[in-house]
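Need a sequence for this fold. Nothing fancy.
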């Protein structure tokens, strides 16, 4: 039995898969290096050791995972991040498979128009093939995309920590305050997913499967769509070796989340809810925030089966579209990256949202006009009252009686200024 660094026993990795050897293969030469596309280099392949943080100072690395169909929404997420932080440098690392070089280059040129933004694509699909990862049975729900996070500690060997975000997220705050958290020797920083934890605990088949792996503290079950990852600790302790075996075992939609909760048990820092406000859970903050004109500053996660780009009536959909229409890609160009069916749905939803937004702004404008009329009427009334006061006999008598005192006060102030 192998032990963790803190002495806890753990099971060995899948019998036919040596994860560390597979990762080491990637370092053998350029043929197995990181396939990287940058604005300056149309197509470059570099060794893992040479993949360094994009900026020497104030570098905030953010890892995102997508395919061609969801790339437009990555642009919206990045726009929301940049909109709330104008001082730090952002090092975006996009893990993908089968996104063509032309689309990557166009995406980079449109979004990295300032000296503080770096966007680099890593083709993890090729790495998965190269590393000889065992084939996942067809009746299992573990996907290639779910494996992407597993490679981060080993691909980014010159990074100590990184933010990982799902693409169905809007960052409505300065994300630097989360990245700058001291995570200590914990593997992950995340937010408890009360809804999912309750579901797992109340479903015997899932509950028993997790308990077989020694996971019994369901109240500490986190959502892994927004994470602060301690890459250094994950590299040193190698807990990711267990990921595939557990992901295959837990045959449900969130099997990768189940695996990460087990792997990192006892090494999770629980962060405040603002780091990952889960919109599939009907909490009190959600009810209050929906009533507010301006949503509280936080990270919003549309983690249900409904998404704001296909359902404009869902909670906080206007917040997502607010960034969609202002993205530097441009709404039409952004949506053209998606397939025709998705694009058609997006344009229809956009038009519906814009119509609603126009109605909302029209009502807001009328309310503002009414308030201005009220203020104008009050001002006119006050001006009239002041004029009538100055014209009154009592006011003229008062001014005459206080004239010597006012004259003396003015002379004293002038004398004091001269000395």
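Here you go.
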């Amino acid at each position: 039995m192998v032990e963790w660094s803190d002495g806890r026993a753990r099971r060995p990795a899948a019998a036919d898969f040596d994860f560390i050897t597979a990762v080491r293969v990637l370092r053998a030469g350029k043929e197995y290096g990181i396939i990287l596309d940058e604005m300056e280099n149309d197509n470059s392949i570099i060794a893992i050791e040479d993949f360094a943080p994009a900026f020497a100072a104030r570098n905030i690395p953010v890892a995102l995972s997508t395919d061609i169909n969801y790339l437009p929404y990555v642009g919206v997420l990045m726009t929301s991040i940049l909109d709330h932080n104008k001082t730090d440098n952002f090092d975006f690392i996009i893990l993908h498979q089968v996104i063509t070089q032309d689309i990557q280059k166009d995406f980079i040129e449109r979004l990295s128009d300032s000296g503080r933004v770096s966007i680099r694509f890593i083709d993890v699909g090729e790495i998965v093939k190269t590393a000889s990862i065992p084939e996942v049975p067809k009746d299992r729900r573990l996907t290639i995309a779910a494996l992407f996070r597993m490679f981060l500690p080993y691909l980014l060997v010159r990074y100590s920590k990184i933010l990982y975000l799902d693409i169905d997220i809007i960052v409505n705050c300065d994300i630097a305050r989360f990245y700058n958290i001291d995570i200590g020797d914990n593997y992950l920083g995340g937010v408890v997913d009360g809804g999912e934890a309750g579901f797992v605990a109340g479903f015997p088949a899932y509950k028993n499967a997790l308990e077989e792996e020694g996971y019994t503290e369901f109240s500490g079950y986190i959502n892994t769509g927004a994470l602060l990852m301690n890459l250094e600790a994950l590299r040193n302790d190698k807990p990711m070796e267990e990921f595939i075996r557990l992901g295959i075992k837990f045959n449900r939609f969130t099997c990768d989340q189940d695996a990460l909760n087990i792997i990192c048990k006892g090494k999770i820092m629980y962060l405040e809810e603002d780091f990952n406000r889960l919109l599939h859970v009907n909490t009190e903050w959600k009810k209050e925030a929906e009533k507010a004109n301006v949503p509280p500053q936080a990270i919003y996660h549309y983690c249900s089966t409904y998404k704001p780009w296909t359902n404009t009536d869902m909670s906080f959909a206007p917040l997502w579209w607010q960034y969609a229409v202002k993205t530097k890609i441009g709404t039409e160009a952004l949506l053209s990256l998606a397939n025709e069916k998705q694009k058609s749905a997006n344009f229809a939803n956009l038009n519906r949202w814009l119509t609603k937004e126009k109605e909302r702004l029209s009502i807001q404008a009328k309310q503002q006009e009414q308030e201005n009329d009220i203020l104008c009427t009050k001002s006119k009334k006050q001006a009239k009252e002041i004029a009538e006061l100055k014209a009154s006999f009592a006011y003229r008598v008062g001014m005459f009686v206080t004239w010597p005192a006012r004259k003396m006060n003015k002379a004293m102030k002038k004398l004091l200024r001269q000395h």
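For context: Confidence is low (pLDDT under 50) at residues 1-22, 24-33, 37-43, 337-341.
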